[in-house]
Design a protein that fits this description.
The protein is an alpha/beta fold and 705 residues long. The chain folds into 4 domains: 4-53 and 161-219, no CATH class; 56-154, Nucleic acid-binding proteins (OB fold (Dihydrolipoamide Acetyltransferase, E2P), Beta Barrel); 220-456 and 654-705, Rossmann fold, CATH 3.40.50.300; 459-619, P-loop containing nucleotide triphosphate hydrolases (Rossmann fold, 3-Layer(aba) Sandwich). The chain is 43% helix and 18% strand. It is built from 27 helices and 22 strands. The chain has a 7-stranded mixed sheet with strand order 6-7-4-3-2-5-8. Strand 19, helix 18 and strand 20 form a beta-alpha-beta unit. The longest helix is centred in the middle third of the chain and has 27 residues, at 224-250. The chain binds adenosine-5'-diphosphate (ADP) and magnesium ion (MG). Magnesium ion is lined by residues 307-308, 402, 559. Residues 307-308, 402, 559 line the site of magnesium ion. Residues 288-449 form the Helicase ATP-binding domain. It catalyses: ATP + H2O = ADP + phosphate + H(+); Couples ATP hydrolysis with the unwinding of duplex DNA by translocating in the 3'-5' direction. Residues 471-631 form the Helicase C-terminal domain. One of its GO terms (biological process) is DNA recombination. Keywords: ATP-binding, DNA damage, DNA recombination, DNA repair, DNA-binding, Helicase, Hydrolase, Isomerase, Nucleotide-binding.
């Protein structure tokens, strides 16, 4: 239950005075909430301004510098209304102070309203920029006009918030100000000693300060109030991860001990020897698995670095120790592909391999489920279907999850809910900088595959404007005639699957036409709307060479392995994430032939867009590309905030607050050891923090755990 002291902060913003449904929707957009109902007072309270307008200068009319915002106390002398019918002549109001005279200028102003706002003979306060022309000062459309009696209404330092359509700065500022009135002092969730040591203000002071910047120093991420709030946000993130994590670890892991006999046999059946980093990763994983503590490890390796072999060889030990191992892939195609590549060497070593996906139906499914329950199935490859209710494992001790960035925290929990606590290896091709690993996954241990298997040829990458599409198609046609294979990746159009599909279908049709009657059958198509069988057929046809140009949408194909494909065309490359292109590009260059990647873009491109594509042209280092991506796009996009359950930060900025992240992590870990249920005094306060930072989902794990 949400602590009652938070009730007023969790009222919908619509309850604030002057905010109707339209505005509430605009506020949802600004604060990044899903909809108006879900936009609460607290979301405004924690909306940080990114700039400020300083209105504190009050030099007098004659001493007001050109183009600088000043605030002036003036007496109204006379109005000079715009002549009727002459819209381009402004309404002028002449005012003075003891230093001189000033004209306030209004275009298209309503005369009546202006005269009422600024009655002749009254003293008013105006704030805005002064322009000097021919030695005469004027102020066009003052930002503020208030009667002297309401002087305090005029903000001397005005915070500037991000805006969105349908919101004026003034309205947003008012909304934030009225949200702030709901903020009361709250119990301190940070360690007192820590607070003093860092000179942090209390939470409510920090929030008030956040919204009342007085100079650039207050806006600096290093300002104490900003650091305090960044810390709070990071702490909430780390605590919720720690809670999930401790739940994952709650059931003790079972120590897996094996001689490595099966592993040796399988290795003997692989057509290559391991790279140094594959070997090292395998040793790290096995060391973890022999311990009683449950392993939760991330295996990070660029596309083509050979993660599957690491998975297979470590699964061999789990099987030898008498357990079952699963390998979960995000898509049907990937699962089937893993199955195909693992089956040979595993079965040659006497290890059984089964595959279970959403497509396994009827008798086949019943049989597989029976084998899983009896323990006859030793390695099981599949999709989410592996963790449905109806799947009962005899003795699941090890789970490998491929392409982690597509799975969120929830899937990880579901995996554990099978009642057993398998050791877990999470494999990802997205090279995630350490700070991101920490913020997204908590303190997961990480193994990295840093060297590529021998014999890989570099991929030559070119960026080409799509006006030259005709040339490209011509070249592709001759390449295909020479027996080469190529992928053609179609862009993500908007967000709807339907339009993706259409663009892929249209592209396939136009390529077939360009190829002419004889070659048209060589053009294949695969997309997300196809049934499993259809996808399989399309992939197999491409593998066997029945088709040689495969038009595809991105969504499903990440990870396919067709070693003799040597050309990759990516349409509208400017719409893709850099890491995404890098991964797609990794589909070629796997065999002995030289490969190329053509990035087609639709010009004109912005400078940043050019720079981004250039990074891909100049580098094949996935890690560097990911860091550039991060730098150019911000951290949320790298993993895809939605898919990964990766927290998008509002108050914390990892480039400025990296040190705080480490501290928050340690703090969270300590807390989860000393007060795992968050029931102590500090624990209760931390619960409040979790709600404030919208990380309260994790609290449910406590209760159910
Ligand atoms: P990823 O890390 O992208 O999942 P895969 O596991 O699919 O990479 O491996 C890519 C290709 O490299 C596969 O065809 C695999 O058989 C091959 N491979 C893996 N390890 C080695 C190695 N040590 N030497 C040579 N080829 C390897
Ligand atoms: Mg892979």
């Amino acid at each position: 239950m949400r602590p009652i002291e938070l009730d007023s902060l969790f009222r919908p913003v619509e309850n604030l005075p002057g905010i109707g449904p339209k505005l509430a929707e605009a506020l949802a957009r600004v604060t990044g909430r899903e909809d108006a109902d879900d936009t609460r007072v607290v979301d405004l309270v924690l909306l940080p301004p990114y700039n400020l307008i300083d209105r504190s200068k009050n030099p007098g009319i004659a001493h007001s510098p050109e183009g600088v915002i000043v605030t002036l106390t003036v007496r109204v002398d006379r109005h000079q209304a715009a002549p009727r019918g002459r819209a381009n002549v402004p309404h002028r109001v002449f005012v003075h102070d003891e230093t001189g005279e000033l004209a306030l200028v209004f275009f298209n102003g309503k005369q009546q309203w202006l005269e009422k706002q600024m009655p002749v003979g009254e003293t008013i306060i105006v704030s805005g920029k002064v322009d000097w022309y021919n030695g005469r000062p004027s102020m066009v459309h003052p930002d503020h006009i208030v009667p002297e009696a309401e002087k305090d209404e005029l903000p001397l330092y005005e915070p500037v918030y991000p805006l969105t359509g349908g919101l004026s700065p003034k309205v947003l500022r008012k909304a934030v100000a009225s949200a702030l009135t709901q903020l009361k002092p709250l119990p301190e969730w940070c360690d007192r000693h820590f607070i003093t040591q860092h000179g942090f203000p209390s939470f409510d002071e920090a929030v008030q300060r956040l919204h009342a910047p007085e100079d650039a120093a207050d806006l600096d991420p290093k300002a104490p109030a900003r650091r305090r709030l960044a810390y709070d946000e990071l702490l909430a993130g780390q605590v919720s991860l720690a809670m999930v994590r401790s739940r994952l670890r709650k059931l003790p892991g079972r120590s897996i001990r094996a001689e490595g006999t099966l592993r040796g046999k399988i290795l003997g059946h692989l057509p290559f020897s391991l790279t140094g980093s594959q070997d090292a990763a395998i040793r790290q994983i096995l060391a973890d698995m022999t311990s009683e503590d449950r392993m939760i490890r991330l295996l990070q390796g660029d596309v083509g670095s050979g993660k599957t072999a690491v998975a297979l060889l470590t699964m061999a030990d789990a099987v030898e120790a008498g357990g079952q191992a699963v390998l979960m892939a995000p898509t049907e195609i990937l699962a089937r592909q893993h199955y195909a590549s693992i089956k040979g060497p595993a079965e040659a070593a006497g290890v059984s391999v089964d595959v279970l996906t959403g497509r396994s139906k009827g008798r086949e499914r019943t049989e597989i489920l029976g084998r899983i329950e009896s323990g006859a199935a030793q390695i099981i490859v599949g999709t989410h279907a592996l963790f449905q209710e109806s799947v009962v494992y005899k003795n699941l001790t090890y789970a490998v999850v491929d392409e982690q960035h597509r799975f969120g925290v929830h899937q990880r929990l579901r995996l554990t809910a099978k009642g057993q606590a398998p050791h877990m290896l999470v494999m990802t091709a997205t090279p995630i900088p350490r700070t991101l690993v920490l913020s997204a996954f908590g303190d997961m241990d990480v193994s990295q595959l840093t060297d590529k298997p021998a014999g890989r040829k570099p991929i030559s990458t070119a960026t080409i404007p799509d006006e030259r599409l005709g040339d490209i198609v011509g070249r592709l046609k001759s390449a295909v005639q020479e027996g080469k294979k190529a992928y053609w990746i179609c862009p993500l159009v908007e967000e709807s699957e339907k339009s993706d599909l259409m663009s892929a279908e249209e592209r396939a049709a136009s390529l077939r036409k360009a190829f002419g009657k004889d070659l048209a059958p060589l053009v294949g198509l695969v997309h997300g709307r196809m049934s499993g069988e259809e996808k399989d057929r399309a992939m197999t046809a491409f593998k066997t060479g029945e088709t040689r140009l495969l038009v595809a949408t991105t969504v499903i194909e990440v990870g396919v392995d067709v070693p003799d494909a040597t050309i990759m065309v990516i349409e509208h490359a400017e719409n893709f994430g850099l890491s995404q292109i890098h991964q797609l590009r990794g589909r070629v260059g796997r065999g002995s032939e030289a490969s190329s990647c053509l990035l087609l873009y639709h010009g004109p491109l912005s400078e940043t867009a050019h720079a981004r594509l250039a990074v891909l042209r100049d580098s094949e280092d996935g890690f560097r590309i990911a860091e550039e991506d991060l730098r150019l796009r911000g951290e949320g996009d790298l993993l895809g905030t939605q898919q990964s359950g990766m927290p998008g930060f509002r108050l914390a900025d990892l480039s400025a607050h990296g040190d705080l992240l480490e501290m928050a992590r340690n703090d969270a870990r300590l807390l989860s050891e000393t007060d795992p249920d968050l029931s102590g005094v500090r624990g209760q306060a931390v619960r409040i923090l979790l709600y404030l930072m919208r990380r309260d989902e994790a609290i449910r794990f406590l209760r159910s755990g």
